[in-house]
Each structure stands twice: as structure tokens, then as C-alpha cells.
Amino acid sequence: PVQIKISRFLLGGRTLVLGAVRDVSDRINVEVALQASGERMELLAANVAEMLAVLDLNGRYTYVSPASVSVGGQSPSDLLGHLAQEFVHPDDWGSVQSGMHEALGQHGRCARTYRRKQSDGTYRWVETSMRPVMGKDGQPLELVISVRDISDRIRQGQQDVLRSQFFEQLVRRNRLDDILRLLVAFVECAHDGLMCMILLVEEGRAHPNLITSAQLPDSFRSVIETAWQDKTLGAISSSEFLQERNLVEDIDALPVQSVIRLACQQAGFRACWSEPIRGEGGVILGSISAYRTFCSQAGMEDIRTLEAAAEMASVAILRKRSDDELQLALSVYNVSKEGIMVTGPDNSIVQVNPSFTTITGYEIQDVLGKNPRILSSGRNTRAVYQDMWKSLSTKNHWQGEVLNRRKNGQEYNEWLTISVIRGPDGSAQRYVGMFADITEWKNAQDVIVRQANFDTLTGLPNRRLFRDRLEHEMKKMDRDRGQLALMFIDLDHFKEVNDTLGHDAGDQLLVEASKRMGSCVRASDTVARLGGDEFAVILAGVPNAQLAERVASEIIAMLEEPFHVKSEAAHVSASVGITFYPNDAEDAESLMKNADQAMYAAKSQGRDRFSWFTDSMQKEAEERLMLANDLREALAVGGLKVYYQPIVDLRTGRVVKAEALIRWHHPTLGEISPPRFIPIAEETGQINILGSWIFRQSAILAKKWVDWAHAQGDEELAKIIRISVNKSPKQFHAHTTFNNWVDILKEIDLHPSHMVIEITENLFLGDHVDIAQKLQRFRDVGMALSLDDFGTGYSSLGYLKKYEVDYLKMDQSFVRGMLDQASDRAIAEAILAMASRLGLDVVAEGIEHPEQRDFLAKAGCRYGQGFLFWKAMPEEEFLALVTNSMAPV
Asked: What is this structure's pTM?
């Protein structure tokens, strides 16, 4: 096989044709071999139980094995092209992401345990292993992962403990209701959000005995009791009426209405699984039911769980009803999944059940007559055994966790319950020990606890553990009459490191920074990562402010030293806020607020320094709180007004657009500028209500203006009228804004093309992958997008390339200096030239002199606004202007 390439050239008026022939047989042979190899890999992946997948460097699925259906319920086509983050529980994404960074950064294998989203919206625990695929240049090309479902293992551990407690209470002859409540918890372990109810049928009782989940509404319980009396437990009914298992996947889809079905709907239940509890001869003793708040089909494991719970409930009920307690105990003894060991008064083993052998590996002949210490690992403390024998002698009962060893030498964690059987004279006749192997469950719990309390990247305590330690140290200071210092630390310029060197480098810097901070404090102190690039330090038992000042200075000096990441030197600094307990605050919440205020004061003073909390900071915080409350009242009683600044077409001088601006006249403080109260609205969440109100007022004005233009027969003006509404980044991230605004336009019958959404580059800061999609939704319905303060941010050109906008607003700082400063003039001309090439219109802000207007018009600027034309004005004045004074300016 050969490859032929033909090219044509013009030379001296003549056409020349050049052909090149290359032997490609080797390449074809390689491609055939690669195809065969790929087919083998596909066959291998199709027969592996674990889900195998490949992620690109952005975390997006590029290959998924067929086993994805068994792991999460999603087919490969459901996952391909999607980000892995979409299928990870939000609380676990930080751990998974750090694992990906670790695998890619260290070019090695990394494992993580997390909750993975299923196709039905629920989550299951999985264990994933990640390993990079390296290119010839030594750089990672993609990430290969395997995913294994371990939810059953974790839940099985929980169920094993509950099952062990069940049999323990059974042997101790506890109340039946208490025993059955363990079975309710046993069933609910099968799934998050599952709610269980046991209904017992007892002769001679007018009311059923209901054992219910704590989450089950009381109103639902009342309906069950009433329906029992009225014999109307039909339609999704209890299994004791149907005499068989009843699995309802969708309650709403049932063809028959009933009181119980209506109660389920009112309680929010969509699925119900019910299993009859049978006694000897198949006699119905009651039923055990599980409810879910969404449609759900019971799987085989769910059915087995119900069956097991029903069987154990049957055993418990029959134990209470049976006179032959010894025979029943023997039955439990033999069928129990828990290991059971019986010893004599001299503590020598006299009997074990089959599960004892399964768990320990010892056959009955290996242990008869021997002391149970043959199982000991030697790692349990003396205090454990002292407590055990003390409890057995005084309470006839002991339970706890011990570490034992199997016959093969392997250690395992055991949940052990021991009960004493005494003779008529009170002497111990037998000791009955029941135990479950909880090793895997305990290991999984350790992982979960660590992920819940420690930062996965740095290993430092996270915000939750930090808060616990802070409150603990505060109580200790109260007891010892001491004081502690709390520091909040924020890394200055960290975002620039992420933007220039990448998130891997940023993570590496955070790890190194945490180590440096740790080297500056005592072993008894706490360094925690609160999130992002924010850290906290608790200095307990500080004798004076000088010690805190010295530690803060050392931390600042250590963080000023260059960080060597990715073979480059990265530089950051630190802003530190310091506050003291009990001098500055009486509770943890106030103390943290003080430290945060002091840290921001350090930033405002120039960064790379520390600042003490002061009374003035507290007063400023109180003033902000007062303004927040007053702003809320102003929104409720109409104390705010929307002003409109005209935007002029520089070619004709006509007002064709306007920018909506909010104004607040405080009843006692007078005019309050937007830069003062808008940040407060953003922090308190009032920005969403405020923004929608401004949008509604602006849309109503636009509707009046457009209707006037139509009435005048000026269809050209009617088409180009636009009102710009500023949209805060905080407001933009609200999920309801888009639908809200579209509904407003429909309500007043205004076409979306008359509205412009004005945004700033701050919207793009941070890792918000859905920003482009949200922007596109506004453009799809016809609204235009305007980028405000263009040219003053960090990456304006990058944003233009990534996000589609319709207008650029040239910042007034360039307009103000363009006539006197060559640099501003050059920037203005460059912005206009670039916008022209990109097909964007430019609105110049801050035009105050005719010379500025003339220069901009000549340079190709389409629109302008500023005091040369008009200041912002109320709606009435603006309508009077545009309807009576439309002559060119």
C-alpha cells in the first residue's frame, strides 16, 4: 500500500503538478495490530465486574466499560462526554478531585472512597482506583479508573452490628418492642431515606401494635390505626391482609383509591415494599413495610433484607409467645450469623455454633475445653478485661469492641456481647458470648470519619473539626482562666498562581503552605484549612499578645519565601487577622467573625501583614447589619427607586438605550451609594429579590417606550430600544433568576430583545463550569449581553474568546484620559478596533466633553453615555425626555 499526495503550483503563468508517493504498509500493519489489541481490551473490559473508565485531563469520560450499568445503573452512553463530578456526591468531590490531582501529579496510583450517584438519583458508596496514562514526553495524557461498589459491604457491617444487638437482646429477654426497633433500623440501613414500620397482629387487641421509624409521620401512623379498625387496609395495603409479599413501585399509578393510598401521598411516599411476618404453619403474625419518597423498584437485596427482618421478627415474636424458650434459643444459636460461644463456670469453652467456625476458623474440636484467650490478639488493654469482668459480676452483661485473631493469624475487629446465666443459688453456670466481625465496616467508618473531619488535600482539620476544637479550647480556657488567640489567614495572590500555573500547582502550594504554618506553632496548637486558600490557627494558653504577634510574623515570613512548584518559583503572601478569647468575644461564632474582620482589615491595608481585631471593626460590622435590615425594609415598603441614564447613538445623537441604576434614599442617613449597599445585598442574599425588582421596573419602562415608538410610527426606533440591567455575579448563580426574568417579560408582553444583561468580569472569576451555559440561555431567548468595565480586568481577551457578548462597555477611566494621555488613547482605539473586527458594538462610559464625544465617534464608537448628555434620572423624567426631546444632541 502507498499514499499519494498531489499538489498544484503556478509558476511563471504555468501550472505545475507535483506528486509524492510514500509506502504506508508499516503504518497499516500497526493500525491493524492496534485494532486487534483494542478489541481484546474491549472484550476484557466487558467481562470485568468492576466499572473501567477513562477520563481526559478535564475529568470528562472518554471511555466507559459495560460494567457501568451494574455499578451505577448508567450505560456507557449515559456517561460518555459527561464530567465525573456530575456523578459524585458534592460533599465527596473535594476528596475525589484531590485524588485525581494526586494521581496525575505523582504519576502513580491513587484510591478514594466516595458516594456515587445512581441512575435513580440515590447514592451508593464506591471505591475507585485511579492511574494516569503517560505520553512519550512523560506527561499524563488521561486517567484510567476502576470503580467498585462497596455500599453493600458498608451497609452489611452496620446490619451485622444491629443483628448482633438483636440476638443479644433476644437472649436477654428484652421487651419485644425494643427488639423490633432494632429490626426497623436494620431495614432502614439498606438505603438512605428508607422509613420502616412493623405492624403486629395480636388476638384480643382492638389496636394493632405499631413499631415505626422515628422519621415516619405521626399522621400516617394514625391513619394506619384507624384503617385497621375499619378494616380498610386495602389498596397498598399491609401484607397481613394480602397474605403475600407486596411490592409497589409507584403508589400514584395504582388503579384503586384508598385511605392508605391517600395517606401515603400526603406523607410524600411514592413506593412501598411490604413483607408478611409468618409464624408456625404460615400463620400471619404481622407485616414489615418499608417506604420511600420516590418511585423505586425493590431489588433482590431489598427483598432479602425484608425477608431476613421478617424472619428475625418472627423469631422474636415467637420467643415471646412460646413456652419452649430453650428450643427457640437453640434454633437461634444454630442459624445465627453471629458467632456464639458458651463457656462453663471455669471459663472453658463447652459449645460453639457454626458461625463461630466461619468467623474464627477454629473447628469445635480445636477449642473445646480451652480458654477463650486463644482468640486474643494480645493488643487489648488490661482495662478492657477489668471492665468486662466487673460488668459481668455486677450486671450479668457486658458488650464492647475487642481485637481478636483468627486461626490463620489474621486480626479482626469484633463486636462482642457476653451474658451470664446464673443458677438458683446465684452462681454463674454459663457465659454466653455472641460476636460479629465488623472489620470491614470499621475500616469504612474510619475512612468516612476522616473525610468528614480532615481536609483531603492538606490533611489538616477541616472547618467542622476546627469548630469543635475551638469550642473545646474555649471551655478549657474558662476552666484554667487563660486566654487563646484565634488567627484567620488568607493567602494573597493565590488565584494568580492557579490561573498561571494551573490547579495542580495551586494544590501543591497549599500543601507546602500548610506545612510551613505548622512549623510555626506548638504541637498543642491547631492549624486548620477552612476552605480554598483560607486557614485558621488556634493558639491556646497564650500568656500575652506578644506570643500571638510573634507567631503571626513567623507565618507571614515563612509564606513570603518562594514556593517551588512545577519547576517554577511561585510567590504569595499572607493577610492575618488576630482576635482573643475571652477579651474580644464570648462565643465561638463571634470570635470567628472578629478574626475574619481583622483579616479583611489586613487585606485592605495592603496585604502581607497582620491586623488585630478592634472595636471600630465591630462598629462597622454592626453598621452593615443595620443597613442590611434597613435594606430589607426598604425593599418591602418601596424605599428604593430605579433611575435611568440615557445612552446616545453617537451617529445621530438620539437616545436609543438606557442603563438602569438603583438609588436608595435612607430616611435618616440620606443617599446611600450602590457601592455601599449592593455588597450587603449580595452577602445577605437580598440581591436576588432586588435584582428581579429592578429588572421588572426596567422592563415596564422599556414596554412603555416601545409602545410609544410604535404609536409614533417610528418602527426603526422601536426595534433598537434597549434597557441595560446590571446583574451581580452572586445573583447570576441563583438557579431561579432566568425563569423569573423570562416570566416577567411574558407577563408584560415585552420581547426579550429589548433587554440587555450587563455583567462584569467578576462573574467569570472562580471555577464555575456552567457560566457559559447560563449566559447562552439568556441569549437563546433573545436578550443581549454587555460586558461592563471592559479592559480593567485580568483576562478580558480570554473572556471574549470563551463567552459570547453583544456589547463592550469601555471603562470611563480610558475615556477620561484619552485626550491627554497617549496610553489611554491607544487603549481606547485598540478596544474599538478589536470590537469592530469581532462584530461587537462599544458603549463608552463617562463622556463629559464634546471633544471626547467627537473623538470616539470618529474612531468608530457607536454609543456613549455620560454627563455631557444626561445624568441618571427617574422614570417620569426619562419618559418625558425620550417622548418629547428626541432631537439630536
From this structure: 0.42
